[in-house]
Structure formats: structure tokens, C-alpha cells
Automatic annotation (TrEMBL), chain A:
Basic and acidic residues compositional bias, start-end: 361-384, 457-470
Name under which the protein is recorded: tRNA (adenine(58)-N(1))-methyltransferase catalytic subunit TRM61
Lineage: Eukaryota, Fungi, Dikarya, Ascomycota, Pezizomycotina
Predominant cellular place of this UniProt entry's protein: nucleus
Organism of this sequence: Penicillium atrosanguineum
Gene Ontology annotations for the cellular component aspect, listed alphabetically: nucleus; tRNA (m1A) methyltransferase complex
Biological process annotations from GO: tRNA methylation
Gene3D superfamilies, sorted: 3.10.330.20, Vaccinia Virus protein VP39 (3.40.50.150)
EC number: 2.1.1.220
TrEMBL record, chain B:
Family annotation (InterPro entries): TRM6
Family, similarity comment: Belongs to the TRM6/GCD10 family.
Pfam family, one: Gcd10p
Protein name (database record): tRNA (adenine(58)-N(1))-methyltransferase non-catalytic subunit TRM6
Entry's Gene Ontology BP terms: tRNA methylation
PANTHER family recorded: TRANSLATION INITIATION FACTOR EIF3-RELATED, TRNA (ADENINE(58)-N(1))-METHYLTRANSFERASE NON-CATALYTIC SUBUNIT TRM6
GO cellular component: nucleus; tRNA (m1A) methyltransferase complex
Amino acid sequence: MPSPFLTPGSTAGPDTVALLHLRRDQTIPTILRTFDDQNLGYKEGKVSNTRFGSFPHSTLIDQPWGSQIAASKVDTGSRGRRGPSKRKADELDTPGTTTGADDDTPSLSKPVAAGSGFLHLMYPTPESWTLSLPHRTQVVYTPDYSYILHRLRARAGGTVIEAGAGSGSFTHAAVRAVFNGYPQEQPANKKQRLGKVCSFEFHEQRAKAVRQEISDHGLNGLVEVTHRDVYEGGFLLGDPQTGQSPKANAIFLDLPAPWLALKHLVRKPASGAESPLDPNSAAYLCTFSPCLEQAEKTIRVMRQLSWLNISMVEVNHNRIDVKRERIGLDCEGIRGATVYPKTVEEAVVKLQEDDERAKRLRQAHYDGKTDDPKVQEDKTRSSKESAIPASTGPSYSQGRLIHRSEPELKTHTSYLVFAVLPRDWTEEDEQKCRQQWPSQKLDAPEPKGGKSRRQAKREAKEKCMEEIKAGENAQPTVEKVEEGNEA
Amino acid sequence: MHSSIRPHQFVAVQLPSEQTRLVKLVPNTIVNLGKYGSFSANQVIGRPFYLTFEILDTPESDGYGLRIVSATELHAETLIEEAEADGEGDDAEAGDGTPLRTNREIVDDASTQRLTLEEIEELKKEASGAGKDIVAKLLESHSALDQKTAFSLAKYTLRKRKKYIRRFTILPLDVNLLVNYSLQERDAGRTMELRDEHIGLLGCLANVHHGGQVMTDPIPDVKPNGRYLVVDETGGLIVAAMAERMGILYPRDDEDLESEEQHSTNEGKEQTKEVGGAGSKPYRRIRPRPMSAAGNTITVVHAYSQPNLSLLKYFGYDTNNPDESHPLHTNLKTISWLQLVNPESDPILSAELPFMPAQELAELKPSKRTAYFFKRNRWERVKNVVNEAREGGFDGLVVATLLTPASIFKHLVPRLAGSAPVAMYSPTAEPLVELMDLYSTGRRTAFITKKRELTQNSSDNEEVDLSSLYDEFELDPTLLLAPTLHHSRVRAWQVLPGRTHPLMTGRGGAEGYLFHGVRVIPTADHIQAAGTFRKRRKVVTSTPTTDQDVEMAT
């Protein structure tokens, strides 16, 4: 089954993961089902209930991705009275009678559209998944993992080792980076290296949860989850000693003590086991540690183990809010606006008005005409109906456009330490290379101004025409050979 | 892909001064590194990347004039320092009589270095050991060396070494390196001051990835995967970065040979095919048609008649002289704004040549025939690309441009498939802030209200005239969900034993901002937002507006 993360297609098929987008930063992941998989007893089949209404999956399945979907009227009340626990008890009382029959009859009632409420049906991406995933540990967020994967050169066809699968956000991003085809579609006789993520997690329950998630997301075969403590066991697949090497090009360590795992990430492990690194390419490494001491210790061990180009960075990311800021005495009653003079002129007019009003009130007080409706009006009214003209135009384009950081910032995530380990290069390799590329052989520098471009082109054309003639003799159908000329 | 240094490949040569040079390694030639010396290309071809070489004063017997510097040697100083620190323990400096060295006594003038300029020049001429001798001599003859603190000594050694040591490191030329090279060594403005963190985030936000294998027998109705729209005014850097993510940037080489066959059949090209029977004729190579791939493609929309993708030359793809085996040859499509927006008036598209049967062709003069093929093929190619682009259904949009964002979004956002992301980079915040405002909640509410009014006023069967709507609203704010503005910046640290701190200086200039949104398909009927938040409104006593209601839609 293709994964909706990688090849979502154009519509939301059954049994795929979909994200129900309610509002910014509020998304509910769900698996679309044509039947009531948790047996919750809805008449409409499986239903997702949100704060903006209920959405039977029959209204979602086979809709184009990105569609706005209206909520439906779903009877949640009577179902609630039955309750799943009671239902279970019923099942036990009368085994194999009613419930089995219920499941077999797919005659689900048709959903009725509700008056209000909607959501958007989205396919999952590592980014949206990162924002909606169930937290098991600290999550590696998009700004960090995007930079890490770029620096790790995690590219289509590569293999990434990830230790500390955690909540699985990095796993999803990494598998997208290396993806270049599903393994089951690979014809047996052709050997193209397919991208793969080898994920290690030492917490058994978390490892199990990640494995389940991977299978739900259609990523089986692209991600291999191993439950192991990599400090001790290393990074081979299967058996820690004799297992198969993942042949990794890139390694990401999100561990409390990455330096303890580094001894396994060498070209020739002391234990005599196979190296988990790809022997034919440089290995890129990144460790992710929140504390400076951890990073320092890691770098020390990296230097001892001959890692090169060691560098440490931190990523500062913030989201920026954009809004319109309105200031002025004419903004009274407008949400989010500040009632305050916007210019000196406005302030002067306001001061004069206030002064005059005060004078009138004083005068009225002297005259004893406080009951006069005009005076009453003066007392109560504020500057609302002042001489300042209200600004015109639609409200959405009023005020000054401003931008600033979101209210809560993540000021530190972790220190990222990057390093690279070149391929192993033996004296033997070197000698072979010297034979192939003799050290002293030198060509005479190319004479300047050889064939002109034009001349070269003409020659190529002539050659081409000859070829055509030859081709026509053999076969009258004209092949499109000349198209190369167009460049 | 980057397993070893290939002949005729562009590589980056890093010098001790931290300078980087991009060099094409042609076999049997000499590469000159200026004051650091020169080396023969043959002596590095075939070797792994990331090795540091030292230029020997006297070549080995077989003429090999380089020495590979081991990692231990590169880290030597730090390793020694660390070992010493371990031996002394932490309280070594504070106690036992030896006073802490400070810079109190140091008088900074030229007299401390006892070697004169002439002497140094002399040394340079005769010194051996790839400059190590010079550095050692300089250190020796520095009169105030024993007064220096560990920190300043380290700095002094480093400075001298950068100047004199004859070493270089060969790095693979990939997008990561090119980004930093463009930023530091060249006119950064030409690549819009793009940084690594922007490239990474841009690709992730736009969900750019390989589209998977193309089915051997494609089902006609299934849309191909991995089609991306790109607007790139960074000279091809964005295209290169996206192509790298999609696995189509690097030329296929020998080590991927097994995979090549599969690729080529899948992507609509054939290797070689025997023409005619009886073995009388030689093989004829059927060339892959340019821009012919169905999936895993990049479509670049450009403002001038030709796109500027000059940086792609570093990856073996030259737009003027295309290498037909390069994946970009089939998977990179280009289309001008004129062809996209107003194809009728495009000079190429409007000049269709009538199809000529083979017999008629055979009677033509060779030059005429060539001209016919050239024009016919060009017309066909452009027509296919234009039709495909106008049909839409793209999986993502990546933008880094000088054009006003709104004008791009107006034409390209409707051509995205539902749920497809949009990511745009800008060196400055202002264009993106304006763009954010075009998708503001207030504007969207006003748009929906006005649209409803217009549709209600007209009768059922009549085509609704929405032109007045688009006069007021430049683009349809209901097509993008959750518009977000990001800013990301990486801060580099120096990590040395006891001297860990962020780097003291860095590059200023453009901050770099990213816009992100997701294309959605609004329903035709009007839907009321649910969740009226009545309770909250009572608390907030200021007058309620429609904003609150619709906020849930974001």
C-alpha cells in the first residue's frame, strides 16, 4: 500500500491516514475507515468528533485531498447511553449472536448535513504530523530536522540511522528525504539502492508504538525499527554481533550520551563486527544534545575517533505574527484597536474639544441648567462624535501592517554537532589509484581557439544527416533523431 | 554519488585560509592554488572526499607529490591539550604558586617578532615541510611567546598556519557547499542571500521529495507523483536544491549502473535499440526527449524568454549544451510566464508547423528537413509542457523571486492540487508581510461575504460575474490555509577545550523569511463556521466582530 506521506494520490482512500485540520495548529490524525473499527456504535460507521462538529468517515473517504468538508448531524447521545463497556458485557452474555451480525451488515445510515461546522481534509506530511503526533518524548521540530537532514546529505536512495526514535517526528522526515521507491515494487532482477531509515529505540513500549505507527502509515519496508540499547548493542540490524550492516550514509543520534554510541560508528569496530557505515561513501553524523557539556564530551570523542569537519550550531527559529495595528481616536469600538490620538493634530483637536465641553458644563452648572438634555449629552458622550473624520475603506485594509515574533518562543532546542567520517583509504587502494591515474602524466595545455562553436555544430549536423540516410535505407519510418539539434 | 573524486567533476578545494575554490578536475592537468602551491589533478582523482592533502616539497619516486594528512594529525593540538588538561586536573591553574598568565605584560608591537620581513620571505623560498617549518620558526623567534596566554597562543599559531601551511581539502560540490560558497565567496545578492537553514526549511515546508518509481504500466487516470512548480531567481540554486531532494540533481554514474537501466525505461526513454533486422545496421541511440518525464519533475516558470539556471553547470547540467543522460534533461521543464498565462500570443506556440508525412519529408532538402524537425519538435515540447502546466494539479510550489508575491500566487496557487503546500523565500520581511495580509482573516471574511452576495443576487443558471470581486481582492484568500511566516537562523559555536563560545562574528545582511501555506479546495456551498464562542465574547467586552467567528477556519 502506498503511504499517504509519500505518494498521497489525489483522493483520500479508505484505510489511509488523514489529518483533519480544524484550525491553525489544531489537527486530528485519524485512519479513514469504511466501517466502525472501534465498534463505537455509530449508525454512520466510523465518526470523528471534533469541537466543530461530527464527521462520519463516509463523508471523507474518496474526497479530493484539501477539500473543505461540512459537519454532519450525528446522534452521539443515544450511543453514549449504551456505552462501550456495557456493550462488551452484552457480548459476553450472548456470545456470537447480535454483535457479529451487526458488523456484517454494512447498511450504514447516510449522514445528514449539519447546519454549521467544517474542517479541511489533508494528507499527512512530516511537518503536519510533527505538529499533531502523540508525544512520547521531546519532539525534534521542523526547523531543526530540516536543517539536520540538509546537512546530513540525506538524499533519495540513502540510508539513515536514527537512534532514539522517540516520538517519530524525525523518522517521518528522514524517510521522506531518502525515499526513492517502495521495496515491494522493485523488480527482483534490478538492483537499485532504495532509501531506508533504520531506527533504534531502547524503550520497549516506544519502539512498539513507533513500529505500529510505521505500519499504519504504510512505511513498512522503508523504516526498520529495532528495539535496542545502542550504547551496548551497536547499530547492526538483527543480531547485535553478527547482524547485517545497514550501510548507513547518515546518522542522527538523539541520545542522552551520544559519545557512548560513537564507538560503534567506526570503519573497523574493535569487536570485529561489521561496520554499520556504508564502505563506499563518507558518513555524515549529527548529534542532538540540549546541554553544552554533552556536546563538548561528544566532540572530544569525535576527535579521538577521527571524525572531521566537526562543527556545532544551534538553530533559532520563530514564527512571525502579522496583523494590522490601528491607532486613532476614531477607532473606538473596533476590536484590537487602540484609542489614542494618532497625530499631534488629532491630539490638539481633542484637547480643544474637551476644553470647550468642560467650559459648557461649567457654564451650565453656574446657570443651574443641568437638566438640559444638551448638557446631559455633553456629560455622557465621549469624543466619539468629535470633529475627527472617521477613516474610510474596508476594515481589513485599515491601520498599519506590522509583524513581530509569536508570543512564546522556543529560545533553545538543542546543540547540533555535525561531523563527517571519510571512506577508509588503504595503501592498497592508493596504489591501485596511482596506476589508474599516473601521477606525472600531463597533457599539453589545450590550444586556444580550436574549433569554433559554429564549426562544431556544422560537423555534428553533417554526421547526423549521414546517420539519417543510413537509417532510412534500413527502415522507412522516420525516427526522431534530430531533436538533439534544437539545442 | 559522492563515493570518490571523479574526473571531469566539479569539486570544492578548501584552503587553510578557509577560502573555497570550485575546480573542475580534468585528468592530466595541474590545479593551481596560488600561494599554497599547485598539484596535479591525477593525484587526487579516484581518492575519497574529505581527505586533507599536504603538498610535498619533493615528490615520491613515482612522481606522487601529495601526502594524506591523517585526522589525528589534524586534531593533534586539541587532542594534546585535552590530554594535558586531563593530567593536570581542574585546579592546576588556581593553586601551587604558578600564577595565572594574563595579557597584562604584553606590549603589542612589531618588535616582538624578531624575524624581519626579508627573513620570512627567504624562509618561504627555502622552507620545507609544507610551511610547517615557517610556522615553527615564527613561533620560535617570537620574543614574547612565553608571556602569551594559552588563548592568544592558540590564536597566533592558527593565524600563522593559515598563512603559510600548504594543505588543501577536497570536498564534494553539493547544494550545501554551493550555498555557503555563494554566500561567502561570491556576490551573495545573486542567490538572494540564501542560507542552509532556509534551503532545508523551504524544501521541507514545500514537502519536496522523490515521487517514487513510475509504474511500468501506468494506469491512465492516476496522476503522476512528485510534480513541483518552482519560481527561481537565484540563478538555479533553488532548482538545484529541490532537484537534490528529488534525486535528479547528480548525473548517473558507473556505480549506479544497475539502476540506470531501470530508470531509463521507466522514464520514457530507451537505451539503445537495434534498428532493422539482419544485423546490417549499427545500433542507433534513441535520445531521451527533453522535458518528457511524467512524474518527479520540476517545472520552472521564468520571466525572460530563457530561464537563468547557470548554477546547474556545477552539477553537470548546462542548459546551453544539455547532457542527455543527465536526469534533469527529462525531468526539468521550463515555461515562461507568457506561455503560462497567455499561450495564444507566445511566438513558439502560435507557430505550429503542419504535420508532414514521412514521404514528403524524404523529398525535402536535408537542411529544410532539419529545420522542420527542429521547429516541429520544439513546438511539440513547448505545447506539452504548457498544456500540462495549465492543467495544474502540482504537488507543491517553491518560490524565491523578485516579482511581487501576489502576482505569482494569483496564477500559480490555483494550479496546485488540494493539500499541496506553498513555500516562498524572501530575503526581507516586507513582501511576505504584505502577502500574509492578503490572506488575513478579515480579508477572507470580507471575500466570502461579498462572494455570497454576488452569487445570491444572480439567478441560478446564470454564470456569476465575479469580476468585481477580483477587482477588490487581488487573489482568492480562501485557497490557502494556515498562512504562516517563519524566520530561522543558525548560530555557530566554537568548541575547543575550555574555550567554548559562539563565534564572535558572523555574516549580516538579509535575515531571510519564509512563507508557508497549504492549498485547499473550498466548497461551493456556504458553510457556517461552528463554535460561536459566545462565552468568550461576553468576557471580552469590546465589540464583537466577524473575525472571531471565522478564526476557526484558519
